[in-house]
Design brief:
The protein has about 280 residues and is mainly beta. Helices cover about 10% and strands about 30% of the residues.
């Protein structure tokens, strides 16, 4: 298989080939894109490719199973927080998600890095309690939720209804988790059951800050907030992934003082198409 780049941008691609659940990365190259830029890699019929496109600070992930020579168009969507952090995005069905956990520090308490170590924020994203994440806004189970909270401009925190749409598209709760988890055991603890990242969601095991005032589960799990309160105002609906299951668990959790990871969804009306590049697959 050969990937040939086209277009006219000054950034460079990172191309990942996924073969039999193994992910290999050719070296990055930096040059003006042209049809002379090629990368050769092994490919077997039916293998899935996780493609990552870069344009300036904008990054887009998506997956394909190619069966013939074809152009591949990248749609770059701006996802930048208030302090200039850029986040990769991924289209899954009709939804567009951040493909990396939020790492915005509001500097006003009730959010932290795992073990109070800034390096963990750089890798896994920041942990927030529900009230801090919501930034004064109320509960919502609408689709879309309409709750920006601490998310980048043009993005919002997903409601439980939006999480349910994602789960259904990925085949139900018993399969969805595996297709969302980053593969291998570099970040996830062994055995990381069912992990294929076939959706491109690329979930990292960010852990949590618990009700007893301690950090837990870095490497073994991650849990995401929704905007949806349940059973009064003390609980919120969450979604969880673990290293020993392919499930995406649907649970209730007391909102405070637990700190969890955050991903957000784009407000479709504010979708920004910045640049399209094409790749030809031979």
């Amino acid at each position: 298989m050969k990937l040939i780049s086209k277009g006219n941008v000054n950034s460079y691609p990172e191309i990942a080939s996924k073969v039999n659940n193994r992910k290999t990365k050719p070296p990055k190259f930096k040059s003006q894109f042209s049809t002379n830029n090629t990368i050769q890699m092994q490919y077997n019929n039916g293998d899935q490719l996780l493609l990552k496109g870069y344009s300036g600070g904008n990054i887009t992930y998506f997956t394909i199973v190619p069966s013939q020579t074809q152009p591949v168009n990248f749609e770059f969507i701006q996802c930048e927080d208030l302090v200039g952090n850029n986040y990769p995005v991924v289209n899954i069905g009709t939804q567009t998600w951040m493909a990396r956990n939020l790492n915005y520090d509001p500097n006003t308490g009730n959010s932290t890095c795992y073990n109070d170590n800034p390096t963990n924020c750089e890798i896994y994203g920041r942990l927030y309690d529900w009230a801090k994440l919501m930034n004064g806004e109320g509960s919502s189970n609408s689709v879309p939720s309409g709750i920006q909270g601490l998310c980048p401009s043009g993005w919002h925190i997903p409601s439980d209804g939006e999480w349910s749409e994602l789960v259904n598209f990925l085949g139900g709760e018993f399969l969805a988790g595996g297709s969302m988890k980053n593969t291998g055991t570099n970040l996830w603890d062994s055995p990381n059951l069912g992990a294929t990242n076939s959706s491109g969601f690329t979930a990292f095991p960010a852990g949590a800050f618990t009700t007893i005032g301690s950090f837990a589960n870095l490497g073994s799990g991650t849990t995401f907030w929704s905007t949806t309160e349940v059973s009064g105002v003390s609980n919120a609906r969450i979604r969880s992934l673990t290293n020993n299951s392919a499930n995406l668990f649907d649970q209730l959790l007391v909102k405070q003082p637990i700190y969890l990871a955050v991903v957000s969804r784009i407000n479709l009306k504010l979708c920004i198409n910045l640049l399209n590049n094409a790749w030809i697959i031979h």
